[in-house]
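B., you asked whether I could sanity-check this one before it goes into the benchmark set. Here's the sequence:
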Amino acid sequence: MSQLDDRLAELAITIPAVAKPVAAYVPAVISGNLVFTSGQLPSVDGKVAVTGKVGAEVDAETAKSLARICVLNGLAAAQSVLGSLDRITRVVKVVGFVASDPSFTGQPGVINGASELLGEIFGDAGIHARSAVGVAVLPLDAPVEVEFLFEFA
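And here's what the prediction gave me:
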């Protein structure tokens, strides 16, 4: 096992199969020494785990846990083009979208679910730049969508 595999096992994390795209795109692409993922929904076994707007049908803590699922799907996408997650040397950027009730302003706290998990997995290499944006609606009525930019060797 690799160091990252050991860390994932220690955290009781399993990387899922790559989520099937819902439109005309691929889950991830490589450019130079960077992997760009497409936006990852909180899908489990091919279905969005929870639907609705954060601050209305979905509470902030649930949405934060959904952002963690997006990380696992993002890592699966990266692994599909890299072959091994051990090649990741740094999490460069995270962009999170939160389908928000108009009165909800806690988008940064929701996307912390993704940021915190990346820190748990990658340590200092998981510290990244980030955007957390509120939007009216996301594909398949998902409450959260997150995309990732990873550097690799």
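One thing to flag: The longest helix spans residues 60-82. Otherwise nothing jumped out at me.
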